[in-house]
Structures are given as C-alpha cells and as structure tokens.
Design a protein that fits this description.
Helix content is about 50%, strand content about 15%. It is an alpha/beta fold. The longest helix has 28 residues, at about 185-210.
Length: about 375
C-alpha cells in the first residue's frame, strides 16, 4: 500500500491511499483559506469548523471554483469530485489534539485555526495523562459532527490532521519543550507518551465510527514539521520510538517532513516500519531518499514562493531534476496564496503532465 498527498479545498495537506495509477509526477495543489475567502467570500471562522452543513456548502463552492479555473488540467477531474463529499478533512486544522487537551482554539475568517501555545505548566508536565476520550467534551463534539455527516451524507469520508508527537507536544508545552528535552528527558518522555497515546486512541475511535458508514481507514500519517528544530540524535533517541509505535499500530504510515532538508533524519526515518509515504524539500539528497524508501510514494514539498516567483523555465528545470533523482513522486504545491497568478499554477501542472508522458519517462529510464 502507498499513500499520496491529499489537499482538500482550504484544508492543510494530509495523505490518502494511492490508487496505483498515479502519474510519474503527480501534482497536488492547495490554496490557502485566504485565497478562497477572497474569491468566494467564505468565512472560515468557528462555524466552518463546527457546522458540517455550512462546511459542505462551502466545499461544493470551492470545488466548483477549482474546476472552473483549472478546467484545462488533468487535475480538474479531481477538483470536480463531489461524491462522496469530504466534509471531515480540514476540521480544526492542525489543532485537534491541542483541543483534546483543553487548549483554546482561535478561528479566523480567512485563515486556519491556531491554538494558545505553551499552556502546560511545569507541575502538569510531571503529572500529565492522556485525556479520557469517552468523557472529553471536545472529542464528543467532533464525533457528533461525524454522526451528522453519516445521517445526512451516508459515508463519512475524510481525515483529521492528527499532526505528530513533537508538533503536538510543542503546542502543549511551548518553546520550553526544547529545553525540557535536554534537561528533563524523563518528564518529556511522559508527555510524548501521553500525546502519542491520545493520537492513537482518538484516530482508532474515529476510524471505527467511519467504518460503520462504509469508510475504512487503515493508515496514519505523522507531521514532523518541527523536526529540524532538534538534532537528529534527539529525534532518534526521544521521538523515533513513538513514530515506530504508531506505524506498528496501524500497519501503514505516512511521514510528513515538511519542506525541510531531510538528510539528517533519513537514517532514523528508515527505521520506521511500513512507511507508505514520505516527503521532504528538493534540497534533500533525493537519490539517497529514493534508495532508502523504494516502496513508499515519495513527495516533494514544492514551496509556494517558488511557484509564485520562479520563471516557468526554472520550475520546469526543478521538476525535471526531481523526476530524474526522485521519481516517481508527488509534487505538493501547498499554501498557494492570493498573490500567485493562475498561469503559474497552470505552468506547474503542464510540466508535470509533460514529464509524466511516456516519451519523457522512457527517455529518463534509458539514460
């Protein structure tokens, strides 16, 4: 099984199962909430995250806009998909686990939600326990949305962004976490263990609810967006065990490394079992990554600033090098904002289609 990048309209990037028919270079394009707010006037405030009926209306509008604006691209068929309608992906952005621990969430009309950071005091760090999800008001509200979607749409399609252990621990403890990792590794391990347990239990309960509606999810993805803030030794010594635990629990894992150079962490990532997806920046040693993860669907996090600022020729040169050293893979152009003209997005899509053509791939394999 492989996983591919998946960006639902206005949602942060996550992953979903591959079909096995993906092109050599598969583009995955995502736009910020601000982009949709400007184009359609959608309010992404609290109502968007707690009212699935309203959210469904906006998802239909966003998909229609994408199909209209990018209708000449092969990606238009994906943009236009409406059945089953995904009303789950994007809910609470990257703040779900923080919400389970009681952190307040702030919403914005034209942005993703953010949470208060660093609310976990020293005394609570030493005593932290996973929340009782059966008695957790935040989780019950999430499951009530799942029940509404099941009642009104039937199948509950989509994915909550559970983030990763380090990301979630950082939200709970704040920047003090990095000092704790050096000075109080035993207490930090207790925090990491609690967060990991919460992620596994919450995902398992959600997957069980989805399964009742005919939607079976058999994988988990972790977001290691902050991994470059710690040394490779710290990751291997303090966090790898939790990514391994998640991978063994679900039997299939995607590793989001964000748009960082993954080189210092690749050896540790290679010790995670069942890796079905991994992404990184194009500054990484792509040939080494392809050797270490031959069975996974690989992806490049292509910066939105490069889409906006580089020339069409420069984008093409980037994609040809990525294809040569790393393909087959996804090209994830997430967080495209209001200042990026459509023709730059079209250029990236055209390059992916051209490079994925049989002639180009055959020529690449003959070199």
């Amino acid at each position: 099984m492989q996983l591919i990048s998946y960006i639902a309209p206005s949602a942060p990037a996550t992953r979903r199962p591959a079909t096995g028919e993906e092109p050599f270079l598969r583009p995955e394009i995502g736009f910020t909430p601000q982009w949709y707010h400007r184009e359609l006037g959608i309010d992404f405030g609290e109502r968007w995250h707690i009212d699935p009926r309203y959210r469904g209306e906006t998802v239909v509008a966003m998909r229609s806009l994408l199909c209209e604006r990018f209708t000449r691209s092969d990606a238009a068929s994906r943009f236009a998909e409406s059945q089953p309608l995904d009303l789950l992906t994007g809910v609470f952005g990257a703040c779900t686990v923080a919400g389970l621990y009681g952190l307040g969430i702030q919403y914005a009309a034209d942005g993703w939600p953010v949470c208060e950071e660093g609310a976990l005091a020293e005394n609570r760090l030493a005593q932290i326990e996973p929340p009782d999800l059966a008695d957790n008001a935040f989780f019950r509200r999430l499951l009530s949305q799942v029940d509404w979607i099941a009642a009104h749409r039937g199948r509950v399609t989509g994915y909550i962004n559970w983030q990763g252990v380090l990301n979630n621990a950082m939200r709970l403890r704040g920047q003090r976490l990095y000092i704790d990792m050096a000075e109080n590794p035993l207490e930090v391990r207790r925090l990491f263990d609690a967060v990991c347990t919460t992620m596994i239990e919450a995902a398992g309960m959600l997957y069980e609810r989805q399964k009742r509606t005919g939607e079976t999810v058999r994988f988990f993805t972790v977001s290691n967006c902050l991994v470059n803030m710690i040394s490779p030794e710290m990751y291997a010594g303090q966090l790898l065990v939790f990514d391994q635990r998640i991978a063994r629990k679900f039997g299939c894992i995607g590793v989001h490394n964000c748009a960082w150079n993954a080189d210092p962490y690749l050896a540790a990532y290679a010790r995670i079992p069942h890796v079905a997806y991994i992404d990184m920046s194009m500054d990484s040693d792509l040939r080494r990554a392809r050797t270490l993860f031959p069975a996974a669907r690989r992806a490049i996090m292509y910066p939105p600033t490069d889409v906006a600022d580089k020339s069409t020729a420069e984008i093409g040169a980037d994609l040809e090098r990525i294809a040569r050293d790393y393909g087959p893979c996804d090209i994830v152009a997430a967080d495209i904002d209001v200042n990026t003209p459509d023709d730059k997005v079209h250029a990236l899509l055209r390059w992916c289609e051209e490079i994925s053509s049989a002639e180009w791939v055959n020529d690449l394999q003959d070199r």
